[in-house]
Amino acid sequence: xxxxxxxxxxxxxxxxxxxxxxxxxxxxxxxxxxxxxxxxxxxxxxxxxxxxxxxxxxxxxxxxxxxxxxxxxxxxxxxxxxxxxxxxxxxxxxxxxxxxxxxxxxxxxxxxxxxxxxxxxxxxxxxxxxxxxxxxxxxxxxxxxxxxxxxxxxxxxxxxxxxxxxxxxxxxxxxxxxxxxxxxxxxxxxxxxxxxxxxxxxxxxxxxxxxxxxxxxxxxxxxxxxxxxxxxxxxxxxxxxxxxxxxxxxxxxxxxxxxxxxxxxxxxxxxxxxxxxxxxxxxxxxxxxxxxxxxxxxxxxxxxxxxxxxxxxxxxxxxxxxxxxxxxxxxxxxxxxxxxxxxxxxxxxxxxxxxxxxxxxxxxxxxxxxxxxxxxxxxxxxxxxxxxxxxxxxxxxxxxxxxxxxxxxxxxxxxxxxxxxxxxxxxxxxxxxxxxxxxxxxxxxxxxxxxxxxxxxxxxxxxxxxxxxxxxxxxxxxxxxxxxxxxxxxxxxxxxxxxxxxxxxxxxx
Length: 509
Hints:
Layout: E1 3-7, H1 18-22, E2 29-33, H2 36-40, H3 46-65, E3 69-73, H4 84-94, E4 97-103, H5 108-115, H6 117-121, E5 124-128, H7 137-145, H8 152-163, E6 167-168, E7 171-172, H9 203-215, H10 231-244, H11 246-252, H12 269-274, H13 279-291, H14 297-321, H15 340-343, H16 349-361, H17 366-380, H18 384-394, H19 400-411, H20 428-434, H21 455-466, H22 468-471, H23 478-486, H24 489-504
Parallel strand pairs: 1-2, 1-4, 2-3, 4-5
Antiparallel strand pairs: 6-7
């Protein structure tokens, strides 16, 4: 009689783990691998690779201490074991295997690979539901199948009712489902900004840093790695956020400032997305902070909405719409991603600050991603596939199930409005209102045409004019088109000429 193999992927490092719960540590084995194909399918940030590999090694160590036999493959660029299939094939050669047990993966390409193992290796493959989510995929599909339009707000309300978070019986606490209008303050230096908890690399992490530094071609800076890499560390980081930043998270969650890379953000998304934290324990902690008076309702609601609202919603969209979703280009974009997205070398201060912060930290908060790097790519007309690959590469929390819908749908509006009812397009005025970036920029945010004009401005109005047939009937954009209509023909030509110049010379700006 053969054994069962349990594959643990690098973004499934949670306890209890469904794979482990399905197997018997006395006779079955776990397999894990640091695989060249996974570190290289996009140009990942060095800190992202360190985070995943270190967390994997810590998980394997903890599993061994809990009585599991773990066959662990460490990174070797020259090894013949470069993919999940290679890892499984080697295990099948070494052992008599009856069954391979995996948890539902985070990327379509991995699911396709797993689904081929029965015919390739002649063994049964069991794919278990991923227990890290509040809403299962079947439940999401049942909800979605009853609707002509899929809107996060209505899904979110369903999740609030299901979980009971921030509910007073059958009604939302405070009388409203959404306090987003209270979460749009610019930060002027008071109250003092907080910082996420920092963790010094232990021996395991230092070994991983050495491996990545010497053997893996990676994006960004590896120095100063301080992410949590164990469940215990991630829980400490969550408690630190509640103590130090949660009270002001809501007010300033959309703010940006050159004096603070974190403001009041938690930096917990990477821990959630690799399994060191679960959405339930995070939402439990946030709700308790609100009930204890340590976090105002607008902050607690805004945080919980990101987790049981957006996070669960985009996962449902991803698995419902793939694989064709990844190829959508609803606005017909055809431009390459500018080189400065990798280097940060641009005179546009908002982009420079955000991209250089990304290079340092493998992190930017949601408004920097949506309204700075994303907004510029949208207005410029970048090919969705290129900007999606960039987001997947450079952020520590980016895995395809969460990155692709957020970028292709929310940022680029390339899915025809499936994810969002309107594009998140804005001129430099929005960035000026929510940050101090414009004060340190060579371009003038109040000007639209001319050599010194903020490039966002002409691109914004040009975007509206170019895509009028897509958006003029959208009720949420009628005011924007009234502004367009008030422009003289001469003004519109000047805007179009400035936009054409920006596109032509974008890497020189």
